[in-house]
Amino acid sequence: MIFQVIHAQDAGNTRCPFHIVESALGREVGWINRFLDREWARRLAETTLRAYAMDLLHFVRWWGSVNHTDAITEGALRESVLPDYLRFQAGLHPQPAAATINRRVGVVDRALRAEFPDSASPFVPGFHYLYWRRSPLCFSRPSLALTRMRVKQPKRIVVPLSVDEVARFWSTFRTSRDLAIVGLMLLQGLRLKEVIALNCDDFIRAEAQIRVRGKGNKPRSLPLASETALLLDHYLRLERPKDCGQPLLVSLKGPARGARMTPAGMRSLFRYHRRTSETALANPHRFRHTFASDMVRAGISLPALMHLMGHAHISTTMVYVQISPRDVFEQYARAVAQQIRPSLPISI
């Protein structure tokens, strides 16, 4: 059996726009689509729902290959379902990233629990058990939490771009629009989708501010660096085609001239300039990492950086608080210079 994700634009307000069906008959996979509809009712972003649908599609294809059916009943669920699915992914070539495996297993876990709330067979102790979870930065008391089936994830290390890499990549751009795109990521820390979603009225020129809609459509206002403001002003006055509507960053040529830039178009732009500048690591999110690392090195407070980055939890911001050995030596030297030390009793 072959399954696929269907995107229905006219699904209405009660149904998720993404559904999983069997390709040959067009028959819906009920337990998955019920879960997606419940998540849609929670007003999750379409990108999140699409990710859930793709994760559950991966699981149902595996389940169908093992059991020759997409139907899942309480009797068919065994305690080995999630471990078997995890082992299947770990044996793939190329192997998915640990974060991808954990995300897939987590979504499947939630969907099965929602479909079979009274079933304990696939979720027995030994794989799921209670433990004491500490709060971020230990600001409050530990709380009881339920473990999930997970594989160990390697520690995330943020590798910012060097000054030379930024300068080399920056030098290959020729339009104010493209330079402004890089500036919004490098000097403001915006995500790729946040840059694409900007409208003209989000650029408040008189106050040197920009309004951003982040994950979950959460708005935040950010100060705008003078260089980025100047580039945006030059782009709006001299490069942007007339009568383009609200989108701030639009295509400047070709059949899509005047239309809002797309994620594919943005990736193509960065791919071309990476190749031209021979800067392999210069991708949109790497510029965001570089912004955060520069802010930490400049001494910005964590709450301020959390707001600038649009993070919901300060633990996410803590990922960027990583210092190099050189930083350790420099800070140690400054601290020692101010330290009160006793004089040596003998001359050496």
Characterize the structure shown:
With 348 residues, the protein is mostly helical. It has two domains: 126 residues, DNA polymerase, domain 1, CATH 1.10.150; 165 residues, hpI Integrase, Chain A (Orthogonal Bundle), CATH 1.10.443.10. Strands 5-6-7 form a three-stranded antiparallel sheet, with no helix packed on it. Strand 5 and strand 6 form a beta hairpin. Helix 1 packs antiparallel against helix 2, helix 1 packs across helix 4 and helix 3 runs antiparallel to helix 4. The protein is globular and about 75 Å long.
CATH architecture of the largest domain: Orthogonal Bundle
Q: What gyration radius follows from the Cα positions, in whole Å?
A: 25 Å
Computed structural class: mainly alpha
User: Into which percent range does the helicity of residues fall?
Assistant: 40-55%
CATH topology of the largest domain: hpI Integrase, Chain A
Q: Look at the structure and give the mean pLDDT.
A: 84
DSSP summary, beta strand count: 7
Main CATH class of the largest domain:
Mainly Alpha
Note the total helix count.
13
CATH superfamily of the largest domain: Intergrase catalytic core
- Give the amount of beta strand, in percent: 5-15%
Taking strands numbered 1, 2, ... along the chain, how are they ordered across the largest sheet?
Answer: 5-6-7
- Gross morphology is globular
Q: What number of structural domains do the residues give? A: 2
